[in-house]
């Protein structure tokens, strides 16, 4: 009686189903406050921007509340509809506010709220101050026991200018296999529709891979702050895609949900933009990943290197990603001759990489964030190795289900001409660049590309003119000098090429 043609009270909800649908979906509310905040009566795919859901919410979405001037909760008796009824409205909106079709099971939702009421939910994450960022809420999606699925959902970021993202925090279900965050390339977000989209095949994943940058991927709750002076740089009016893959190991219905806080500030010209990479076995030809059902370990190696013009990747973090047949995962820096150098990622650590446990957990792999960026010269690159065990009954191939397989290293890094160092500047002469100066333990040297190498030697002399260090057999344009044994002080260097001095200058060792 409160929303009829004779007594509409801001919205008319009688008439034919089509008339009611047309009065709700993508309609600007009569309420001026809700309208000014950009809300719709029903915003397909976005319950938190739907005034109808705000009015009936009654705490179902913990941090989504009516604002001053948006009136009282409905029904006006202030007695909420049942949780199942309110959830059905939210689910209808979440799945795109379709005018026909079946998307969710009332029996499953009722089982969660009534038959099995009180199952643990993800603890609501307090949102950032609006001046520092915003929160994105994914879900809930109700999962029956034994179910595995992956859904994605796109969200608009309310940034009217380019921003520097310096921190992300996520809280999610313990049943999570991965929670991935993509930033769409400008204008490419139209490849997926509004609302929850089920990922059912490789083509769904490929759409995202070629139209968006994956900026984070975690299998558990995380709080990551990026090093000072670095950030993920997002263009104005960014659109994110959140991708959620879960497996319900429980014997009851769970609500798959996640809270994501993104903290940002206006872009600074001095900010070093972070980049991400998914290093996959086979590259674009993922069908190369084939694991025979022979009951023995099968190890695959990726040699990742390139003549990168910036030539250093300063690694912020590394994380393995396999499915259930994965038993080991390692990453080394790579020598110029193709051999393994330093072990920089050991999959046999615990999830926060604080303790060696001796086994690799495929569903909760370690996330290694370096205290200081770890420099890798990409002319030499990295070696990634993963081991899988398949005892049958079938050969396993690349695929999205955890019964299939993946082999990916997820890397966050930034490129630079010289590797990260807390001190020093670049020393230049006509034939080479050196960094850092002052140096403490390692001096990085890059020969000029125009230099035709003819048995070059690098020589270092102390203040008395005594030769204290010499590097011979230089085979690459970029190499390093170990100065850790040299006392603090001023040194001179000479670059000898073909028996002639072609470069010279001064270097300071300081600790």
Structure description:
It contains six helices and 29 strands. The longest helix is centred in the N-terminal third of the chain and has 12 residues, at 83-94. It has helices spanning 17-24, 32-36, 51-56, 83-94, 106-115, 202-211; strands at residues 133-143, 148-156, 163-172, 176-184, 197-198, 212-218, 222-225, 230-234, 239-247, 254-266, 272-273, 275-280, 290-291, 297-304, 312-322, 326-334, 340-346, 367-377, 382-389, 396-397, 407-416, 425-428, 432-437, 442-447, 457-461, 467-471, 478-482, 489-497, 500-509. α4 (83-94) packs across α5 (106-115).
**Total count of strands:** 29
Helical content (DSSP H or I, runs of 4+): under 10%
- Rg, rounded, reads 28 Å
Low-confidence stretches: none
Layout of SSEs?
Elements: H1 17-24, H2 32-36, H3 51-56, H4 83-94, H5 106-115, E1 133-143, E2 148-156, E3 163-172, E4 176-184, E5 197-198, H6 202-211, E6 212-218, E7 222-225, E8 230-234, E9 239-247, E10 254-266, E11 272-273, E12 275-280, E13 290-291, E14 297-304, E15 312-322, E16 326-334, E17 340-346, E18 367-377, E19 382-389, E20 396-397, E21 407-416, E22 425-428, E23 432-437, E24 442-447, E25 457-461, E26 467-471, E27 478-482, E28 489-497, E29 500-509
Helix pairs in contact: 4-5
């Amino acid at each position: 009686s409160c929303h009829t043609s004779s007594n509409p009270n801001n919205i008319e909800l009688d008439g034919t189903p089509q008339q009611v649908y047309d009065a709700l979906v993508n309609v600007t509310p009569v309420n001026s406050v809700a309208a000014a905040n950009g809300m719709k009566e029903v915003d397909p795919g976005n319950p938190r921007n739907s005034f109808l859901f705000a009015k009936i919410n009654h705490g179902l979405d913990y941090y989504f509340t009516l604002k001053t001037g948006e009136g009282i909760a409905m029904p006006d008796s202030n007695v909420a509809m049942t949780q199942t009824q309110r959830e059905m409205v939210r689910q209808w909106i979440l799945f795109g506010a379709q005018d026909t079709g079946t998307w969710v099971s009332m029996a499953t939702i009722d089982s969660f709220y009534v038959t099995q009421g009180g199952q643990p939910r993800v603890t609501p994450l307090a949102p950032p101050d609006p001046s520092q960022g915003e929160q994105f809420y994914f879900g809930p999606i109700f999962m029956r026991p034994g179910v595995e699925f992956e859904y994605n959902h796109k969200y608009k970021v309310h940034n009217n200018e380019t921003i520097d993202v310096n921190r992300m925090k996520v809280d999610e279900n313990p049943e999570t296999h991965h929670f991935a965050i993509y930033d769409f390339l400008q204008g490419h977000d139209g490849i997926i529709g509004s609302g929850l989209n089920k990922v059912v095949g490789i083509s769904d994943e490929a759409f995202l891979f070629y139209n968006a940058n994956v900026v984070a991927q975690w299998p558990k709750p995380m709080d990551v702050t990026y090093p000072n002076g670095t950030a993920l740089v997002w263009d104005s009016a960014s659109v994110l895609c959140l991708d959620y893959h879960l497996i319900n190991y429980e014997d009851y219905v769970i609500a798959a949900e996640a809270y994501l806080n993104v903290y940002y500030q206006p872009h600074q010209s001095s900010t070093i933009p972070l980049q991400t990479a998914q290093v996959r076995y086979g590259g674009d030809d993922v069908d190369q990943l084939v694991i025979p059902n022979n009951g023995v370990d099968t190890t695959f190696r990726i040699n990742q290197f390139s003549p990168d013009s910036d030539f250093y990747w300063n690694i912020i973090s590394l994380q393995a990603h396999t499915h259930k047949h994965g038993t080991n995962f390692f990453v080394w820096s790579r020598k110029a001759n193709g051999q393994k150098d330093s072990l920089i990622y050991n999959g046999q650590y615990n999830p926060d990489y604080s303790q060696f446990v001796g086994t690799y957990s495929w569903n909760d792999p370690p996330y290694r964030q370096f205290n200081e960026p770890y420099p890798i010269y990409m002319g030499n690159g990295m070696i990634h190795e993963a081991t899988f065990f398949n005892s049958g009954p079938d050969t396993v191939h690349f695929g999205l289900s955890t019964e299939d397989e993946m082999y990916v290293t997820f890397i966050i890094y930034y490129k630079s001409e010289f590797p990260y160092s807390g001190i020093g500047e670049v020393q230049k002469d006509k034939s080479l660049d050196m960094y850092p100066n002052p140096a403490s333990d390692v001096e990085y040297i890059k020969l000029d590309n125009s230099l035709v190498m003819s048995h070059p030697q690098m020589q270092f002399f102390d203040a008395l003119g005594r030769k204290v260090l010499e590097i011979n057999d230089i085979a690459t344009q970029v190499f390093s000098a170990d100065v850790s044994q040299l006392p603090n002080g001023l040194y001179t260097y000479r670059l000898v090429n073909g028996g002639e001095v072609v470069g010279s200058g001064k270097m300071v060792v300081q600790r």
